[in-house]
Amino acid sequence: MLSRDLVDLMRDVGVFPAILATSDKDGNVHITFITWVYPINDRTLRVALSSNAKSAKNMLQSGQACIMLIAPGKALACYGTASLVQERIEEVKFPVSVFEISISSVENNLFPGGTITGTIPFMHTGDLQKAGELDQIVIEALRL
Question: Which terminus of the chain is less hemmed in, N or C, by CB atoms within 10 Å?
């Protein structure tokens, strides 16, 4: 499913920007940018989202998700089934839920003659220390 080099990259980076697509029970699609993604293995991803986010509500309703992973040489749409693993990360001051996505298929979305030269550039703004501490707490919860 996911290559070993991509799993290793995602684990090393810690905060890995990705694009998450979900749908509600009526099939209405919602797409959002997320950064709390962690590979448990080559077929399982864990993501953390605000418990009140539309994506979280959609995954609870339909159980379906697609996450787009962008890395050097890769633009992978990972389709799968989502399930709630942890309703709330207690150490976080606002409600954050953990979901697990069991990948059923991976589609390479690179077009012929093109390649990706890196990951999605991302940095925090505002209080960098607090953002870093929050990332550390959430990523640690995803690893469990």
Answer: C
